[in-house]
Design brief:
Two copies of one chain form a homodimer. With 387 residues, chain A is of the alpha/beta class. Chain A has 14 helices and 14 strands.
Chain lengths: 387, 387
């Protein structure tokens, strides 16, 4: 049977039919008043999603483009920056910093372990001359399923007073609580193919007033990714370069759906699915890569020992048309990753877990009958009852 | 009546239903073998469109992002570049060069007039120490509807031997003949919402072997727009950052349609529509901004004197739901622009011209009855007969 693919990867995530139909509408002119009206509406909804009054800017770019913009608009050559690196994406932001000649200090943790906020505290507290200009953190590290402790690290940055906090929230925004204004986060980057429930193609950068002050001094070269240009035009409900109009029309539809569900419900759903997947995987006797206290609400990495990760992935695809993600770099072949981000229902989790259970049986694992599904039901139903 | 908009702007251009339906398919994983297969197919088709064996790379970006990549990947800080500037887009590429600290010489012509190839010849011939590293030309200047003489300017660049020729072909590629390999063009940038017949959101950069040699020496900072990364992954049928999968699936469909029509037919259609629109506008007694010998096959700018350009635009929109473009910068309010690029049929041209004729009558202009439509029919039918 064709075309019955179920995406359980950390992006692209499934897209609701309402959104696909919006995407497929005939394009309209990006300089028309109709489009400006849509753009204004989307901008307001993006501020709602970011829990902020700050500018939230839309770029035609992937999440990496958005994060590059989030970094290069606020810094100058030779600036000292701390970059949290405990996975593929933290590593990537350090590479971006180095490509632009920043004085880059990598604060590392093993892939699968969380960043230690104490290391940041110490670096920031001892920086009496305020040489640290930014701290760059990947909130949900997609490559491992670790949720770094943004709230605590951010508190240390606030105590420093000078440094900006720049956050990769690509797989955390819209999945867990990130109250931008309440926490005083300076810059948040994200991408469309995640909790936004639309296909890849748009990046987003939210920018605080403090970051705009830094923008004025920043001297790294930029043009297409210049957020000052984007801001100036966004205030007139337009964009400096041709906007991806179909994607923005689709985004309006998906943000409307998110508002209908409500932030608290969206976060509870992701939390519930994280619990369900983790409980089920444990009940199936497979080791998780990360511990419960730093588990991402978007993605769960499983590090099987008694079966091959890639075999699980290929059988899940072959027999059930469920796409799981593999491991990146040195985790390639060592883990598989289950995405539970965006347009994912309780039923989807039961589907994925029951298919995983069947797959493990095919691979000859002895499993208590129904153990995975039972654990998932317990986690979903127990939590649903409480809410 | 709603939702019966007809786009006659120079982008976004109309999108065929086949393509919209492809766009609206559920996304698939960008690291899947299914997607790699599509990516390989699209890449081959892009080479066909560019008439090249060179790499043609796909970026999630607008045309401006593609052109920035086309410039910054092949140059180093302080490099001397000549930038042709006879409109908004030529101006923009000069701004990009300056933002990156290039030694930028603007070769200017009045907006609406073509660049003079002789000025390039003289600059290049007198550059005995080969200090000119690139010549950057906007082929079809979208802001004015001028088609610059790329073939002649390129010949002068070839005679120089050292400088690269970097071409903004955003509104010329797929509308007029640009045989990349035959002419030896080094870098061509383009964007999806033009002759490609898909919505905005993708940019393309084709790169010659000579340009890749320059890439090795180039030192401008870049990461997201790094074409070396894109090339390395493209040779494995993937992308360094999440590909805009829905857009690429749509692109495959539109490129298939273009192959079905054939390059010669596509170019003939655009040429026919240019003639039809220009003949009709002349017959209606309105002045054209550009002369016939430098007229873009994608867009025609009209500079009315006896009626207000913005009034023509608003009545065309109000009564006929036809979107025309206005003028940019100092041409704002002085011209209106008729797009005839991409998915535009002979019938569309007759629709637009007859609506324009009606609009001019509403504005009180005395026009020989049917003059515009007759001229368009003559131009289309006369040429169709010859082909």
């Amino acid at each position: 049977m064709q075309d019955k693919l179920m995406l359980m990867i950390p992006g692209p995530t499934p897209v609701p039919e309402r959104v696909l139909l919006a995407l497929a509408k005939h394009p309209i002119g990006h300089r028309s008043s109709e489009f400006s009206h849509i753009f204004a509406d989307v901008t307001t909804k993006l501020q709602w999603l970011h829990q902020t009054k700050n500018d939230v800017l839309i770029l035609t770019a992937s999440g990496t483009g958005a994060m590059e913009a989030a970094i290069i608009n606020f810094l100058s050559k030779g600036d000292r920056v701390l970059v949290g690196e405990n996975g593929k994406f933290g590593q990537r932001w350090a590479e971006v910093c180095e490509a632009y000649g920043l004085n880059t200090e990598r604060i590392q943790a093993e892939w699968g372990k969380p960043l230690d906020p104490e290391v940041f505290r110490e670096k920031l507290e001892t920086d009496k001359e305020k040489s640290i200009k930014a701290v760059i953190i990947t909130h949900s590290e997609t490559s491992t399923g670790v949720l770094n402790d943004l709230e605590t690290i951010n508190r240390h940055v606030k105590a420093h007073g000078e440094a900006l906090i720049i956050v990769d929230a690509v797989t955390s925004l819209g999945a867990t609580n990130i109250p931008m204004d309440e926490w005083g986060i300076d810059v948040i980057g994200s991408g469309s193919q995640k909790a936004y429930m639309i296909p890849p193609g748009l990046g987003f950068v939210a920018v605080s007033e403090k970051a705009w002050q830094a923008y004025k001094r920043a001297d790294l070269p930029r043009y297409y990714l210049d957020l000052g240009k984007a801001r100036k035009d966004a205030h007139k409900n337009t964009t400096p370069f041709t906007a991806a109009v179909n994607m923005i029309v689709a985004l309006r539809e998906s943000l409307t759906m998110m508002q209908e569900e409500g932030l608290a419900n969206i976060f509870a759903r992701h939390s519930r699915h994280r619990s369900a997947v983790r409980s089920a995987v444990k009940a199936l006797g497979l080791p998780l890569l990360t511990s419960d206290d730093c588990a991402s609400p978007a993605i769960t990495a499983v590090a099987p020992v008694t079966v091959e990760a890639e075999k699980v992935r290929s059988l899940m695809k072959k027999h059930f048309d469920i796409a799981l993600a593999g491991g990146q770099d040195h985790l390639n072949g060592k883990i598989f990753r289950i995405g539970h981000l965006g347009y994912v229902s309780d039923r989807d989790i039961l589907s994925a877990i029951s298919a995983l259970e069947a797959t493990l049986q095919m691979l000859g694992l002895e499993i208590p009958p129904g153990a995975g599904v039972n654990a998932a039901i317990e986690a979903i139903w127990g939590q649903a009852h409480q809410s």
